[in-house]
Amino acid sequence: MKQFQTVVIGAGPGGYEAALELARAGVKTLLIDKSKEHIGGVCLNEGCVSTKNYLQYAEFAAKASYFGSRGVELEMKGLDIKALAMHTISLKDELRTGVAWLLEQAGVEMLYGSASFIDDHYLSVSDETIEFDHCIIATGSKAQELSILPIDGKHIISSREVFELQALPRSIVIVGGGLIGCEFATFFSAFGVEVTMVVRGTQLLSSEDEDLSKALLRAFKKRSINILLSASVSEVQVEVERVKLAINAQNEERIECDLVLCATGRIPYTDGLKLENAGIKQSDKGFIEVNSAFQTTQGHIYAVGDCIDTFGYAHTAYTEGRIASHNIITGEAVTNTHITPSTVFSDPQVATCGLSEKEAKRLGLAIDVKKAYFKANAKAKILGDDAGFMKIILSPQDEIVLGASIVGAEAVEIIHLLSAAIERKVTLKELAGMIYAHPTISEIIRNL
Description:
This protein is an alpha/beta fold.
């Protein structure tokens, strides 16, 4: 039997970040995952990295006609998705090798297998028993499956199977209007696939402000994406080469397509952990319950990332992993006080941080709202992408920046400037008074 000061379960962003921090501080650390191929977690292997690589190709394809009409002589014949899939595998292998090297250099011991709790100080991994002083659970999430849309990997798929496609479908129905659905609608539509989105709510990106959602909706409709709002799938018939769907919307619709993508969100992955043996509680939705310092109901066991009910982003998991490891190393109870940017790599991109207009209204808070449009921005014109806007939420008393929303070119990059402004309680006058390089998208802040 082996004994470790800290065991981390799950080698995704939250897990490997925590393991690195611990080992670099001299803590004897074990990192457990199912196999070496799982290093990097969902983010690297079937989420953030893979999706954004596919979307980079889509961005190029979407801009081809614009620059072609302005003198660039090129011919778009379509997409060799097999070549894209192979490049994505190579990219993942390269990044995974880099993470494994960092872990080795830091002195993190690896163990491959499925972990389950024996009690609150012992784990079983395959046939081995591991004793620990502290533990961090970072097991991530999995795709949520609807009973009416059982994923078969061929006709009905999750985001994971997108990266296994050997040919583009002629048509696809995407069920879900959140981040995952919007990003894949962007990808498939860029290469001429007929896309229909079935969205349960009244808007795309239901948690965002209505004006952002409407801007995205207009852009999607311009790309001939068919969007059914306040809609749900009521019937599914899978045939040899086609899928037939009955859709409950304003009027019942029947749609045939080559492929259905179930993009209805993700749920915490805690399968087989036997959390009850360690006395660790979960919420009704399956999330591991933690306090503000990421401690579970057992104070020496922590949980971070998608398995807890916080923002489901890799960048959130990285931060939570660092905080949990800091608390183990120091015995403190530090919390996450950072502003988390929310990002959607659709076309147009959407990014938000801090207080939203919708949330302010719900809380009854007095706010000022300032908007600036990309139409007046030179860099947006150069990029051929001037249909967006930036919105800032201010305190009416002193014009301190409380929140920000961007829809348009380079939104996912610019949002970090605004996150920092909110964290540091910067006023709009101070933010707009900075010197911005010209021409850049960022200088739109001067127009607020």
